[in-house]
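User: Sequence in, structure out. Go.
Assistant: Echoing your sequence, followed by the structure tokens.
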Amino acid sequence: MIKHNGNIIKQGLFVTIFLILGLAVLVTGCGKKEAPEAGKKEVTADQKESSHNENEKKEEHGVVTLSQDIQKSSGIEVKAVAMQAATVPFTATAAIEMNMDRTAKISPRVTGKATKIIASQGDRVKAGQVLAYIDSIELDQIWSDYRKAQGKVELARRNLQREETLFSKKISPEKDVLKARQELGETEADISLASERFRLAGIDVTQFAATQGNGSHPLIPIASPVSGVVIEKAVTQGEVVNPEKILFMVADLSTLWVVIDVYEKDMSRLKVGARVKVSVTAFPGKSFDGKISYISDVVDEKTRTEKARVTIDNASGLLKPGMFATVIAEATSGGTERLIAVPEEAVQIEGALRYVFVQIAPDKFKRRDVETGRTLGKNLEITAGLKEGEAIAVKGGFTLKSELKKGELEGDAH
């Protein structure tokens, strides 16, 4: 009996030991599993902190912090963006043309051969300057008619003297004297016409008469009636030309025309004498002043537009006929719109980008890209990027821009 009880005690002891060992293993395994979890929690916390720092950096990008005292001393002025009624100037594309009031197409007055060409395309000439000479057989016919008229005048003058003498001696009636006077008047008209033909041909009749004794034949000069530039030259030496042939085109380019096609809806917005500014792509940032000198009274049935013309000074010679241009004109009526416009100095320029500084806190300004539209006096229209009520720096933007650049350079250095 005692032996049996001893066996039972031994078996219980083994079971107890086994349970203790199993519990130890279990506790150890659990401990190993918990360690990685703790490490994992630490990594996650670090990641969260790093991510938070990155977000803060992103939020700070493009932000300038300046105390209110520094803002005041730097001349930074803040104003809320508001919708406003603005008189929008008339804007249109246009083409630059020659001033046709100062342009001459030059043709010969008689048929002849071009024997001497003096001017070339691109030459600058003065009014009255000879461009070419032609030799014309028509001069011989004009001279012949002139000489015949001279002979008739001399004959009519002697006949009148004779009739007056006979009438004074009561030999012939008064009607013969009156007839002789009429004949003299007719012949004098013929010689005046012959002299005018010489003038129209560009020849002085007295100079021509002086050359007839030595057998020389004067050439007819082709002169420019205006000062300017030879735009076209359409004659070669030895070519036979006639009055229908245009030999040269000379234009005074010191003033030019800027021609605008104005749509019906805009016709009431323009008037003669309104000031305009003209710009061309060849000279970005430069504008040329002019005035509307003419508005057509006729509307083109196909395009539903009418022509308006601006006369513009071109003493500098920068503008060329054929250039395309943009015209901004003072609008007389119908040009009021509600829009957002800010002072030009509030908009900073960086390459093709335009931006302003929006106040996001009393001591903080954030860069905001915007899209600009028309120039309205000293203001710029903002078409995108700003909302009504937002506060922006309207003065001192250059200071904010400098601070922003300085901060970016310091950030790159770190």
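User: And one key feature?
Assistant: Residues 1-5, 25-41, 48-59 have pLDDT under 50 and may be disordered.
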